[in-house]
Amino acid sequence: MEPDGRGGPRALAVVVTGVPGAGKTTLASALAEKLGAVLLSLDTIKEE
């Protein structure tokens, strides 16, 4: 996170959408690694 100009951290959320097989997970994984961010993926979240 980066400062928001008021002394506090600024959060960033990136949402990647698209058709199946388009490479969303690959792109999101690379982007998260580059930014040092946490990747939350619906591929890994199981609904009960």
How would you explain this protein's 3D organization?
The chain is of the alpha+beta class and 48 residues long. The chain contains one helix and two strands. It has one helix at 24-35, and strands at residues 2-3, 9-10. Strands 1-2 form a two-stranded antiparallel ribbon. The model has no long low-confidence stretch (mean pLDDT 83).
List the helices and strands and how they pair.
Blueprint: E1 2-3, E2 9-10, H1 24-35
Antiparallel strand pairs: 1-2
- Amino-to-carboxy terminus distance: 32 Å
Radius of gyration: 14 Å
Which residue ranges are poorly predicted, with pLDDT under 50 across at least 5 consecutive positions? none
Secondary structure class reads alpha+beta
Order of helix and strand elements from N to C terminus: EEH
Amount of beta strand: 5-15%
Q: Strand sequence of the main sheet, in spatial order? A: 1-2
- Estimate the mean pLDDT confidence: 83
Helix percentage range: 25-40%
Largest sheet: 2 strands, antiparallel
What is the number of beta strands?
2
**Number of helical regions:** 1
Shape: elongated
List keywords for this structure.
48 residues, two-stranded antiparallel ribbon, single chain, alpha+beta, 2 strands, 1 helix
